[in-house]
Amino acid sequence: xxxxxxxxxxxxxxxxxxxxxxxxxxxxxxxxxxxxxxxxxxxxxxxxxxxxxxxxxxxxxxxxxxxxxxxxxxxxxxxxxxxxxxxxxxxxxxxxxxxxxxxxxxxxxxxxxxxxxxxxxxxxxxxxxx
Length: 130
Description:
A hairpin with a 5-residue loop joins strand 4 (84-88) and strand 5. The longest helix has 13 residues, at 39-51. This protein has a 3-stranded antiparallel sheet. The model has no long low-confidence stretch (mean pLDDT 85). Helices cover 30% and strands 20% of the residues. By secondary structure, it is of the alpha+beta class. The chain has a single domain (8-129), classed as Arc Repressor Mutant, subunit A (Orthogonal Bundle), CATH 1.10.10.
């Protein structure tokens, strides 16, 4: 098994993602980190964290890639993210909703291995502010 390297940038990025209630985009992470590391380093760290099973990627309805913490079931071999992602049309946040799992019925001879659902609407924070 490949050795896991922990750098200061990796630790800070993982702390940001783990402490966030919503998925973070590369630019969100870059803004919060300030001058700690450059954008290329952030891309490399995010890829490494995804490969290690620490974070998963979500592509929102605008095509922006966001990253969220993985549940404890993920590993470097396989991710388990068969849940709904909610994309707020007002604040553009992306939230993992673990307890809303849609039922899928496929035609014969189709085997689902993973899926990615994105629901668009208005999040509770924006609903309250309206």
